[in-house]
Design goal:
The chain has helices at residues 21-29, 70-73, 87-94, 108-122, 125-130, 139-148, 158-169, 198-206; strands at residues 7-9, 34-41, 47-49, 98-103, 132-135, 153-154, 183-186, 189-190, 193-194, 210-213. It is α/β, with parallel strands linked by helices. The chain starts with 6 loop residues before the first strand and ends in a 5-residue tail after the last strand.
């Protein structure tokens, strides 16, 4: 079995606000080469790194990303006095690392359209194809992403992950609908059972699939 890849979710956030320079720097200092972040687009088309539509979770104000301009959001500081980050800043300072880009709803297709323009502007085709993978939250949006970015890997949808997981639990993986090379998410536990075991991994790998395991917070 090959060595697993550790992915830092929104950076290392023990002493830093998520999706900020400090959280990413802390993760990189710990040795992470693969990181995850969230993409949302402002009203005027700037792509920024923010998990929730409201910035209240990371800042002391309640602006909505999708209805605010970047000019409005840019001066606002996070709870630990950092600036909100844009995709351009991520690309400039962290392009050597690998990224999972969680493209958030409800305006995910608009964000994808803006991402096409962003890639062209920054001539970032090679980076987006070789250093990123996409996480989307509906089959329609994933199909749209594949149309716009046919060479970028996408993670399996929730329904696919549930079908695959149940088939493995029942020891009939042939009913899991697996696609070779596709990555399926697995929670650490289900109904009190530990899912992240050698047998589980072997079942997925036998189908040519990859496993993305969400580890417990501890």
């Amino acid at each position: 079995m090959s060595q697993g890849t550790w992915i830092s979710h929104r950076g290392y956030c023990k002493d830093a606000t998520e999706n900020t320079r400090n959280s990413f720097d802390a993760a990189i200092k710990l040795g992470f080469t693969h990181l995850e972040t969230d993409l949302r687009a402002t009203a005027d088309g700037e792509i920024i790194l923010q998990h929730n539509s409201s910035i209240e979770h990371t800042c002391s104000q309640k602006h909505c990303v999708e209805t605010s301009s970047w000019k409005e959001l840019m001066p606002i500081k996070t709870h630990d006095e950092q600036n909100l980050l844009t995709l351009t800043e991520l690309y400039t300072d962290y392009h050597d690392y690998h990224w999972t880009l969680d493209i958030k709803r409800p305006d995910d297709q608009r964000t994808l359209d803006l991402l096409v323009l962003w890639v062209r502007k920054h001539k970032a085709e090679t980076w987006i194809e070789q250093h990123t993978r996409f996480l989307l939250w509906s089959p329609t949006s994933e199909a749209y992403a594949r149309q716009l970015f046919p060479k970028v890997l996408t993670l399996a949808q929730e329904r696919e992950c549930i079908q695959a997981g149940l088939s493995v639990l029942c020891r009939i993986p042939r009913l899991g609908g697996f696609q070779k090379g596709r990555t399926y998410s697995v929670p650490p536990q289900f109904a009190g059972m530990n899912l992240y075991t050698k047998r589980t991994l072997a079942s997925y790998h036998a189908q040519g699939a990859r496993v993305l395991a969400y580890l417990p917070d501890r």
